[in-house]
Design goal:
Number of domains: 4
Bound molecules: iron/sulfur cluster, FE2/S2 (inorganic) cluster
Strand order of the largest sheet: 2-1-5-3-4
CATH class of the largest domain: Alpha Beta
Shape: globular
CATH architecture of the largest domain: 3-Layer(aba) Sandwich
Structural class: alpha/beta
Number of helices: 23
């Protein structure tokens, strides 16, 4: 029996000689339990003795073997080659200049970290050892596990698009460690603020690739934001605006609550109905900025015969941005209000359009506040996939557009909803091309708007979305399908500003067009209807 082999494609590049990188493929015998570093040693010993790659400890301790493996950064010595893997592609860490083959120069990152003085500075000479009790550093202790492999930095969407504005995850790790060290007299909080503390989208891509499972968004960025806001009132102007608006109108958009359900005026959508099976929680973006999402969702629920209601002007913000800037007191008010509404009216299920509301109800309320809403919370894509399966919605009219799908971080990486949106797209006959560079599902690059970034750094949010469109959207795709109105809104800004030849569409709009046919025009509006129809014709 022939021994199994794995095809290993390795990027080779000597910038002093080659005009551009190229890939060479090598067949490597598969051995159970082998790691990527073992494959590289084999290639070096049997095929290419000049292959350049770094390694030292082979134990995940020195951080030197980090590289891109199938488009995802990680440590070669800690990454198993799976038995059924036929092929694996290796490239140097992105972001950094290549020295040769798989070796990069991380000097830019190191210099940025050195600039923040990443060490404890005491106020005066210390006479005797200072005692630090375990509970004082408990929260930031995991940060000390960092081996500075730079994998997280190379995957960070904000670093990729705007490294000048945001210092990046390694720097934030140092700043959190130092901000919580009581011996430290240096003002690392102000440094963090200046280094883009509020430019992290909290997308979690850094955590996803970290071999040490360090939770930078929560344990570094979140912890420093907590101190920055609660101890020093360090906030960006955009966040102050949002906070004021939330306090005055219970929404972050400075809109009057009375207009929250204006989108539904011609739809006979039930408002404030008690004991409905489904509370459709519309969310602020769909209520005011992307109303065709709300209209399509309400129409689909009603066509499926669902017993549902919206809260109308009684709906309040979910509090998402408050968790990102750590105003937990106000977040608690919104959470308790929502819990009361659900209990008083005996709703059985909550359905959201926005991935951010979905995460807030499902994850932030219970984990950050200990508040359970007491009923299942579903995203509309989960509900509609089930309605299609049950025959309650029939996708009669094919929507044959060539498109790609953007996985919102809050829906995908944070809560594992990947398949239902794709199932719906398939039912509609959409020709789906996944995002390039392995940037879909758990590796999806963030849209740039989350984590409070859109309110604090509008240009950064737009640049991150623009980077995603430029680098990840396949050229065959004429549209980007969304399942979050907030991502949609931010991508729309990027596409319009940069004049990208691609359109943003929401999955519920497509589904409604398929279920209703031309009649859907009056729900989603002439402009959107014509744009999507034109895409189908282009195919
Ligand atoms: S946080 Fe994790 S991925 Fe980032 S440099 Fe440290 S060990 Fe590497
Ligand atoms: S959470 Fe996302 S934006 Fe923030 S540091 Fe990690 S990868 Fe970068
Ligand atoms: S060789 Fe040291 S971390 Fe991989």
């Amino acid at each position: 029996m022939t021994k199994p082999t794995v095809k290993v494609n390795v990027q080779l590049y000597d910038p002093t000689r080659d005009s551009k990188p190229r890939y060479e493929s090598y067949d490597v015998p598969y051995v159970e339990g082998m790691r990527v570093l073992d494959a590289l040693h084999y290639i070096h010993d049997h095929y290419n003795s000049s292959l350049a790659y770094r390694w030292e400890c082979r134990a995940g301790q020195c951080g030197s073997c980090a590289m891109m493996m199938n488009g995802k950064a990680g440590l070669a010595c800690q990454t198993n080659i799976l038995q059924d893997a036929r092929e694996i592609t290796l490239a140097p860490l992105s972001i950094f200049p290549v020295v040769r083959d798989l070796v990069v120069d991380v000097e830019k990152g190191v210099n940025k970290v050195l600039k923040i003085r990443p060490y404890v500075q005491t106020a005066s000479s210390v006479k005797r050892p200072q005692v630090i009790y375990p509970h004082e550093i408990e929260d930031v202790k995991p940060l000390k596990e960092c081996v500075e492999c730079w994998a997280c930095v190379s995957m960070c969407p904000v670093v990729q698009a705007a490294w000048d504005t945001y210092g990046g995850p390694v720097m934030m790790g140092h700043l959190a460690r130092l901000s919580y060290d009581k011996r430290n007299a240096f003002d690392h909080l102000s440094v963090a603020f200046l280094e883009g503390l509020y430019a992290c989208t909290q997308c979690g891509n850094c955590k996803e690739v970290c071999a040490k499972e360090i939770d930078i968004p929560e344990k570094a960025v979140g912890k420093v934001r907590y101190l920055a806001y609660n101890k020093r009132n360090l906030l960006r102007e955009g966040h102050r605006f949002v906070l004021n608006s939330l306090k005055m109108h219970a929404n972050p958009l400075d809109e009057s609550s009375n207009t929250r359900a204006n989108w539904a005026s011609d739809l006979q959508t039930p408002i404030g109905k008690r004991e409905a099976e489904i509370l459709y929680y519309v969310g602020c973006m769909a209520s005011w900025r992307e109303q065709s999402v709300a209209r399509s969702t309400a129409k689909l629920l009603s066509m499926a015969g669902a017993d549902f209601t919206i809260l109308g002007s009684a709906e309040k913000d979910c509090g998402s941005v408050l968790f990102r800037i750590n105003d937990l007191e106000l977040a608690r008010e919104f959470a308790l209000y929502m819990k009361d509404k659900v209990r008083e009216n005996r709703y059985k299920t909550i359905v959201t359009s926005c991935a951010g509301c979905f995460r807030t109800f499902r994850k932030d309320y219970p984990e950050r506040l200990g508040i359970e809403l007491g009923v299942p919370v579903l995203h509309s894509s989960e509900v509609f996939a089930e309605f299609i399966r049950d025959g309650r919605l029939v996708a009669k009219n094919p929507v044959q557009i060539e498109a790609t799908y953007h996985d919102p971080c809050h829906l995908g990486r944070h809560l594992g909803v990947y398949d239902q949106p794709r199932q719906i797209a398939k039912e509609l006959n959409v020709i789906l091309h996944e995002m390039l560079n392995n940037r879909y599902k758990e590796n999806a690059r963030c849209c740039g708007a989350g984590g409070g970034v859109r309110s604090a750094f509008r240009e950064v949010a737009r640049d991150v979305a623009a980077y995603r469109v430029e680098v990840d959207v396949p050229k065959e795709a004429k549209a980007i399908i969304h399942t979050c109105p907030f991502c949609y809104f931010n991508f729309e800004d990027a596409v319009e500003t940069r004049k990208f030849p691609v359109q943003n569409v929401d999955l519920t709009e497509l589904l409604l067009m398929s279920v209703m046919g031309p009649e859907s025009r009056k729900i989603i509006g002439d402009r959107r209807y014509d744009q999507i129809s034109a895409l189908a014709e282009k195919k």
